[in-house]
């Protein structure tokens, strides 16, 4: 009979006022299935998240906090009534199974395009083209020079995060996670290469962290007892790599010491040299130790984990939970596969970001040869 290969992963974890049934977290994954004018989730999102609700906690795909925040075609938001209504149905589907569901709040800043923003230029700390590519209705297009934000723009954007956070709670999410990596708006403020401001939101480490910390504070005041997390990657600067970069790392280190008890957890994605490169175990550990030395609360480790390495990182005390991204694409029942030591299916990368149900809600659960093994769980 197959035996469980893991144990620590399947102990409960208290987070805010919630007790998670296990320490397996589904990492946020943009899937570009919101093929409607309202950028609102539909029945297929309910099915997709409901299928994956064996995780103790699921973090939603990045949800745009405003119209200006959208970073690609068919990506959902959390700023309109239709979107709140759609997400309410998704949270119902997930809560029926006991898993916690967190809304990831995102603003991509300069990593957008006027074709996604009704003809307006993207917003950013300074007018510096990030030289990236963005998916629009006409395909992958190059980014352009964004409009440097005025202080009014900054204050309105912070208010947009707070409003999206209130919407998350209205829609029944258990809390929110602030996306603070991947060269998006918060990273653009942290990094002196994309932030040349001289007005108190740019300059030294403290000034470059200010936008992030003001967003954290505003969101925290908007969600009552909801869970508040931040997702960082050390510390994505530009393009497809997210490597330790001294200038932005210093800003994040400062922010980590400042967020203190305001945030319930830090979700730390390991470094790697390109979007699909392998994660290196030592780099993962170095990041987690760095986060632990600055932040007292719950740490969720992310980046290329399997059953053994996830168990090991928990046993070593480097993290309190482990999140899995890519493995959840093709394994809706990943927690069960982890518990029973069942093999993992490989995802089809060509259907990762296309609309429709194929490659989204049609991955099967594992079949178990020995019914006694299933009965154990
Ligand atoms: C299809 C896909 C979409 C992703 N979208 C997001 C996103 O919206 N927000 C985010 O913070 N990370 C996103 N990520 C990164 C994952 O959350 C995770 O950090 C990364 O995949 C590494 O974890 P893994 O090795 O377990 O996949 C995405 C990853 C994938 C594969």
UniProtKB/TrEMBL annotation:
Give the NADH:flavin oxidoreductase/NADH oxidase N-terminal domain ranges: 9-343
An annotated GO cellular component of this protein is: cytosol
* GO MF: FMN binding; oxidoreductase activity, acting on the CH-CH group of donors, NAD or NADP as acceptor
One Pfam family from the record: Oxidored_FMN
What InterPro entries does the record point to?
Aldolase_TIM, OxRdtase_FMN_N, Oye-like
Enumerate the UniProt keywords alphabetically: Oxidoreductase
Reading the lineage from the top rank, the first entry is Bacteria
Cofactor(s) of this protein: FMN
The text of the family note is: Belongs to the NADH:flavin oxidoreductase/NADH oxidase family.
Q: Which PANTHER family match?
A: NADH OXIDOREDUCTASE-RELATED, NADPH DEHYDROGENASE 2-RELATED
Q: What is this protein called?
A: N-ethylmaleimide reductase
Protein source organism: Frondihabitans australicus
Per the UniProt record, the lineage of the source organism begins with: Bacteria, Bacillati, Actinomycetota, Actinomycetes, Micrococcales
